[in-house]
Amino acid sequence: MSDNIDELDARILDLIQEDANLSVAEVAERVGLSPSPCWRRIKRLEDIGVIKKRVTVLDPDKLGLGFEVYAGIKLSVPSRENLEAFEANLDKWPEVVSCATVTGREDYMLRIMTRDMHAYDDFLRDQLLASDLVSSVESRIIVRSIKTTTAVPLKLVIGDRMTNS
What we know:
Blueprint: H1 7-18, H2 24-31, H3 35-47, E1 67-75, H4 80-89, E2 96-101, E3 108-114, H5 117-128, E4 134-141, H6 155-158
Antiparallel strand pairs: 1-3, 1-4, 2-3
Helix pairs in contact: 2-3
């Protein structure tokens, strides 16, 4: 278990990462605390950075952004300067919703959301391939998403002792 959290913290985190709209009183009741100690635990978890932020998860299909691609990016020359230059471009590309450096043949794996194939093609041609930094892009179009979650798997931290109340 992490030195920063105990089993009760993990139960609190499990609840609020599933539903950030729960009041402190509701969380406290579900984990068997009174509201004040529960609030102090949540505040401490925010202060130490375990809770980074609270967000609302949107349905991209209902917003017309249901075309999703995973793209492996190979840089022309994977130098420190090129890595930093490529990463600086990410803020200019709202289509890129996730980016990670990876091991293997590619340097980055991007998760990209657009309206449709044509919008992706425009992004690919006008942004990714227009850059001298990128030597190749291998695209994998998502046909159907089977599992998507933003939840951190807390059971891996706390094990089988964690119970959902």
